Amino acid sequence: MSGLAIGILGLALCAIFCGIGSAFGLKFAGSAAVGVMAEDPAKFSKVIVLALLPATQGIYGFVIAIMGLSSLGADMTMAQGWQVFAAALPMTVSGIFSAILQGKTSATTIQGVGKKSEISGKALLFPAMIEFYAILGLVVSIMLLQQA
User: Which domains does the chain have, with CATH numbers?
Assistant: First the structure.
């Protein structure tokens, strides 16, 4: 396997796993949002942000994959390929897990908002705290890609 192939693999896995995490997270949050809206359609504006939060990790994974393309070259050594692969890892791992967990937390938060809509502003804090770890993975991957 060439250095280029290793680098491409790392970037592709980042986009794929972050996308998978977001898809699962959106499934959990979206299902809860539909349940709340089925009972009270007026709560759409209170649950939409909570339902969409897990989508950001998929976007972050895509950003890292696109940014990483500038680190690739046909004449890359294996070491350089592994450097790009490793640079994508923080976002890959934090992206899949934080998106799934954020989706589950958002779903529970949405159910709470369904019962008591006045908590929506305060309740947003809990899934947003999980977002922080996805952002850390994004920042670390960006910093590592700049060194690759």
Answer: 3-147 (1.20.120.610)
Residue 54 token pair: 């897990």
CA distances from 37 to 9, 23, 32, 46, 124 (A): 41, 20, 9, 10, 17
Q: Which one, of 24, 18, 29, lies nearest residue 96 by Cα? A: 18
SS3 content of the chain, % helix, strand, coil (to 5): 90, 0, 10
Q: Tens digits of per-residue pLDDT, 5-52?
A: 999 999 999 999 999 999 999 999 999 999 999 999 999 999 999 999
- Per-residue pLDDT band at 121 (split at 50, 70, 90): confident
Query: How far is 72 from 3, CA to CA, in rounded Å?
Result: 9
Nearest to 25 by CA among 73, 95, 76: 95
Structure tokens at 5: 């192939």
